[in-house]
Amino acid sequence: MLYTSVLRPLFFRLDAEAAHNFALRGASLLAQSRLACRAVERVLARPAPRPVTAMGLTFPNPVGLAAGMDKNGVAPLAWWAFGFGFVELGTVTPVGQPGNDKPRMFRYPAEAAVVNRMGFNNAGADALAARLAAQTSRHLRPPFPVGVSVGKNKATPADRSADDFATAASVVQPHADFLTVNVSSPNTPGLRALQNAADVGKIVRAVRAVAGGKPVLVKIAPELDGDDLRAVLDAALTEGVAGVIATNTLSTATRPGYETGGLSGGPLRALAAVKVAQVRDHVGDGPTIVGCGGVATGADAQALLDVGATLVQIYTALVYEGPFLPAAITRYLP
Ligand SMILES: Cc1cc2nc3c(=O)[nH]c(=O)nc-3n(C[C@H](O)[C@H](O)[C@H](O)COP(=O)(O)O)c2cc1C
């Protein structure tokens, strides 16, 4: 209520990216102080642990922050204080890059949706590694799994993509509990063309070779379907992925009425559940599935767990529902 009736109307007066930056700055300030985080945990009443073990890691609860919110790892301890069970930082690329021109993030309140075409704006893998190392030495590392999503620089030619993924992974790996190969953002030209068996196999092999034994996941697009989906999953499994994140955003390329970019939130919810079920059908019991797309309530999270996810992630619903959401979702789960 505090968020939806007081803070959200103020945030929504700002352009979507400005509001995002404002919220992230607040979270990053909070994450500088263990004491302040403990106070926030009390106020938000961090939910009782509902531990999940997956990929050799223990998650205090199955509700994570999806990639893209904290690309540069400025606030891991704050995400813990808000009640999350894990966080995925990034997507980071080997070299920092500015991303696409602004405006590049748009709200669609009637559908509780967002379209973004950020384009992997990030400070680079070295900066993230240095920041995570500093957090560890200052005892500001949260007691939950911290994953890092890796991608390729826009300027890197397609045939050198695997090198970019491996470079970013090798730099951040010592500070990450898991790594995600992101071949599914619609906002880097040519990236989704890598969602084929040969390229996914090559990229996963290159990343696993430098991952230091850390679990490697692949994040797929919601449009990946049928034989193409099965071929990508088979290639990833052959190369030893520990998990699959289903899904990234839906491209608006064929959806009139939306800005160009990736659509997330409400309109993605049903398709994300279909994709989780399809992935589970194909991969069987072994790999971990992280369900992502349109989760805004405990029932939405449960629906993804029911069709085969072990963990879930949220991003867009935080914009609409605020920081109380992860705790509320966790409390709903049995
Ligand atoms: C502004 C914005 C930036 C995003 N950036 C990334 C990113 O860098 N890497 C990534 O894998 N996913 C990124 N995503 C996708 C989310 O991680 C998630 O897969 C998607 O938004 C669906 O979940 P949701 O409906 O809960 O938002 C981004 C999403 C948004 C809204």
CATH class category = Alpha Beta
Helix content: 25-40%
Taking the sheet with the most strands, its summary is: 8 strands, parallel, barrel
What is the 3D shape? globular
Strand order of the largest sheet: 3-4-7-8-9-10-13-14
The assigned CATH architecture is Alpha-Beta Barrel
**What structural class do the secondary elements suggest?**
alpha/beta
Bound molecules: flavin mononucleotide
Strand content: 15-25%
CATH topology: TIM Barrel
Task: Give structural notes.
This protein has 334 residues and is α/β, with parallel strands linked by helices. The protein has one domain (2-332): Aldolase class I (TIM Barrel). The protein has helices spanning 2-11, 16-30, 34-44, 76-81, 125-137, 161-172, 197-210, 226-238, 269-283, 298-306, 316-321, 325-332; strands at residues 52-54, 57-59, 63-65, 86-92, 105-108, 113-116, 146-150, 178-182, 216-220, 243-246, 250-251, 262-265, 288-292, 311-314. Strand 3 (63-65), helix 4 and strand 4 (86-92) form a beta-alpha-beta unit. The two termini are 24 Å apart. The structure holds flavin mononucleotide (FMN). Residues 66-68, 71, 91, 105, 114, 116, 118, 149, 182, 185, 219, 248-249, 264-265, 268, 292-295, 314-317 line the site of flavin mononucleotide (FMN).
